[in-house]
Amino acid sequence: MFYDLNVPYSPDDPEVPHTLNFLAELGYTTVALSQTVNGKLPPSIAPPHPTNAPKSLQLLTRLNLTLADPAQNQRLTALSQAYDIVALRPTNEKSLLNACTNLECDVISVDLSVRLPYHFKFKMLSAAISRGVRIEICYGPGITGSGLDARRNLIGNATSLIRATRGRGIIVSSEARRALSLRAPWDVINLACVWGLSQERGKEAVCEESRKVTALAKLKRTSWRGIVDIVHGGEKAKPEGPAPKQKNAPKVKEPAQPDNGADNLKRKASISSEPVTEDADKPLSKREIKRRAKKARFDAKGESAT
């Protein structure tokens, strides 16, 4: 599964459907449509919901917040509930330090196509990575239409960023406003190798690390402080009642049992309390002969007495 977590979106931009279709053809499975906000936050922001996107793409919503003053972070918690991903774009070293150490966000995305007046430090970036925040490199501004300076700055800044982070906690996105600025996933991996990442780290930047961003962002929204999540609330399962009877359903007749005379006779014989007469042809036992002889003598004595 390949991810592109930064695709600029505008409802009036006719290039968005072509960009999404080309992303699906290149093999991407998850795409985040981003909206950028500069300065103060507006009172209400609606996440993008395109209607003509390819069915093979899983679309996420993302907010890019340009951060120049730490006082702009008052509504980050509310924004994380409305968007799938919240990304911060610091413009100076002070705001970058604040984003790495204090602010609640999912991604820190620095504009690497411009010349930065500061250097990346391992201690500052490792603090963000240890909190689950990923550092993003966007290759789109340095690929087409930005000039040689933007391309040179992108290569130099990406190399220094990879060196400062030891190649860990980095994701690579496009930030492409047109389909011509997109690259296939394996081309992006080769581009990351040019910047200084190994091929394994480059693939993780497009696949595994991006998946962790979406999973951790979802966990922050649905759990308590990103630690405890209720999987099952312990509700009792509702008992399933009997199936409702159909009013006009035909009645099924039970098959008639065959009348077995022998079985009926045996059943009557076992239930009846009358003794069963013995056959005349059956030979008498010695005990029965003595009993009958004794009875005959007793009857004879009674007759003689009378």
From TrEMBL:
Gene3D superfamilies (alphabetical): Metal-dependent hydrolases
GO MF annotations in UniProt: RNA binding
BP GO annotations: tRNA processing
Region annotation Disordered: where it falls in the sequence: 233-306
InterPro entries for this protein: Pol/histidinol_Pase-like (IPR016195), RNase_P_p30 (IPR002738)
Hydrolase recorded as keyword: no
Family: Belongs to the eukaryotic/archaeal RNase P protein component 3 family.
Biased composition (Basic and acidic residues): 296-306
Subcellular location: Nucleus
Protein name: RNase P subunit p30
Annotated keywords: tRNA processing
Gene Ontology CC: nucleolar ribonuclease P complex
Organism, as annotated: Penicillium cf. griseofulvum
Top-level taxon in the UniProt lineage: Eukaryota
